Amino acid sequence: VHTKSFHIHIKYYNQTTEWLLSRTRHRPKIAVVCGSGLGLLADGVTNKEIFPYADIPNFPVSTVPGHEGCLVFGILKGKSCVFMQGRFHLYEGYSLCKVTFPVRIFKLLGVETLIVTNASGGLCPDFKVGDIMLIKDHINLPGFAGQHPLCGPNDERFGIRFPCMSDAYSKDLRKLALDISHELDYTNFVREGVYCMVSGPNFETIAEARMLQVLGCDSVDI
Ligand SMILES: O=P(O)(O)O[C@@H]1C[C@H](O)[C@@H](CO)O1
């Protein structure tokens, strides 16, 4: 991989951030990335301001069905939020720094909490189709092969060079989600587990899925 594809100059992050800040009144502290078919998570938002990705400078565009390709700002339960209706994938041909570009824009917009969602494949034999799995940890398989969004020059504005990953997923937020699933009587389909990223675009072979199970993965996605 050419090292240039590991890096996006800060001027592009600043340009995109300034473009958005000059067009929205919202100053979200919470961002939600909606996976395939999950753009409807933004439906309950009020005071909506919608920006198609194609209009936002430097933003990638969605090429996968089920990904609307819009950034939606608004208010949910009194909190200012931003929703990505559609996310980006390595298999679309984007470098990982392009895939994660919006996350860094969220950081520059002042977002403090990131909620990621997607439609992944279940590996844990106890899971049923349609279950919701809260991610408690992950295995970044492409990362083992040097396909990692943090490779390249480090910009301390976005975080330290060697980030600790032992607490990547907030215990407090996971507990909150579990508490709410109890309150709503959703416990028979809300699970916790280890998520694995693979590159795609093919889904896994039977042998690969079995290997991932042995490695301790409960769900897998591309
Ligand atoms: O963006 P997510 O992970 O929800 O999308 C899944 C995996 C593929 O991108 C796509 C296949 O339908 O859905």
UniProtKB/TrEMBL annotation:
Residues 29-221 form the Nucleoside phosphorylase domain. Keywords: Glycosyltransferase, Transferase. GO terms for molecular function: purine-nucleoside phosphorylase activity. InterPro entries: Nucleoside_phosphorylase_d (IPR000845), Nucleoside_phosphorylase_sf (IPR035994), Purine_phosphorylase (IPR011268). Its EC number is 2.4.2.1. Pathway: Purine metabolism; purine nucleoside salvage. One of its GO terms (cellular component) is cytoplasm. It comes from the Eukaryota. It catalyses: 2'-deoxyguanosine + phosphate = 2-deoxy-alpha-D-ribose 1-phosphate + guanine; inosine + phosphate = alpha-D-ribose 1-phosphate + hypoxanthine; guanosine + phosphate = alpha-D-ribose 1-phosphate + guanine; 2'-deoxyinosine + phosphate = 2-deoxy-alpha-D-ribose 1-phosphate + hypoxanthine. GO terms for biological process: nucleoside metabolic process. NCBIfam families: PNPH-PUNA-XAPA, PRK08202.1. Belongs to the PNP/MTAP phosphorylase family. This is purine-nucleoside phosphorylase. The gene is pnp4b.
